[in-house]
Write a structure and sequence with these properties.
The protein is α+β, with helices and mostly antiparallel strands and 308 residues long. The chain is 56% helix and 14% strand. It starts with a helix and ends with a strand.
Length: 308
């Protein structure tokens, strides 16, 4: 009710101000009409140019941080903190103290704002029309906009903070798609592996390879379950950066030396190298998670972040 009363009062004041403004302009125009001599030779009057009226700058809400010029509202931090607390309660885990929850909430919102900033630079962030359309669709889905307001309140949103959350999520979805599309164009390798706890077994494998035997055939004999096939994968999936560098340095048809990893002896063979090959679901999920993590780390390093 308070919001409606204030809104009506503001609209009334705006109407009154508009009426007074037009009355003032009319009076000024009437008083400034010059005397015209009917015998005078008419001269061309310069065509007046319109002076553009600047758009009003929106008032920013009280903010906890600024990320590349975009503000993170305190209201959003408080709402995110309440959501995190409820999530911890649902998990029946230990609930962090208030300061830790606030720090986690702020970090989450900074990451979301990094996505929003990048999406705006690319021109792919949702605009006001898209946000209005999404909001109306939610009203229809829930039965009414009052039902949406109730849902927002239950989930620690105001109408404004929910709109900001919609904008951040839409921008994040758009940027994730950009990052994943770029991942599709990275180099990938199709790798086979032979391993054993006995070094002598791998020495025998190396001897057979020197005689021209097929690595893939031997891998299938050593591992009947998977045939030694590690499938296709890009950089960022293997647990060891050093091992990854060794594998990606190979040409198709090349293999590593015998490598000891956690007490197990291994030889890796690159059967094929290709850009844009379709990845298995599990490999894709690992690669996408790593790509997002790397992207956010780089954004944090280069971003202008100010904590208030």
């Amino acid at each position: 009710m308070i919001t409606l009363v204030n809104s009506d009062r503001i609209m009334g004041m705006k109407k009154l101000f508009t009426f007074l403004l037009f009355a003032f302009l009319f009076a000024m125009t009437a008083c400034s009409v010059p005397h015209v001599d009917p015998t005078a030779t008419p001269t061309e009057e310069p065509i007046p140019t319109e002076t553009p009226i600047p758009e009003p700058t929106p008032t920013m809400p009280p903010s906890a941080a600024k990320v590349n010029g975009l503000f993170v509202a305190i209201e959003d931090v408080d709402g995110k903190k309440a959501q995190l607390r409820e999530a911890y309660e649902l998990l029946d885990g230990e609930i962090p103290d208030d300061d830790d929850l606030k720090e986690e909430a702020l970090n989450d919102l900074i990451e979301e704002t990094l996505f929003l900033s990048a999406a705006q630079l690319r021109g792919i962030a949702p605009d006001a029309h898209e946000l209005d359309t999404q909001t109306q669709a939610l009203c229809v889905k829930l039965g009414s906009c009052d039902a949406l307001r109730d849902w927002e309140a239950q989930n620690h949103y105001s109408e404004d903070s929910f709109r900001r959350a919609l904008e951040r999520e839409g921008a994040a979805a758009a940027m994730r798609q950009v990052i994943f599309d770029e991942l599709k164009n990275t180099e990938q390798v199709h790798v086979y592996r032979i391993w054993s706890a006995r070094r002598a077994d791998l020495d025998e494998v190396m001897n057979r390879l020197s005689m021209g035997l097929s690595f893939v055939d031997m891998a299938r004999n050593y591992d009947e379950a998977t045939g030694g096939d590690m499938s296709w994968f890009p950089r960022g999936v293997l647990f060891s950066r050093d091992l990854e560098d060794k594998i990606f340095a190979l040409d198709a048809g090349g293999h590593t030396d015998i490598l000891e990893i956690d007490g197990v002896y291994n030889v890796f063979y690159v059967a094929e190298k290709q850009t844009g090959h379709e990845m298995d679901t599990q490999v894709k999920q690992l690669a996408q998670r790593k790509a997002l993590s790397d992207w956010l780390e780089e954004q944090r390093k280069s971003a202008d972040i100010e904590i208030f």
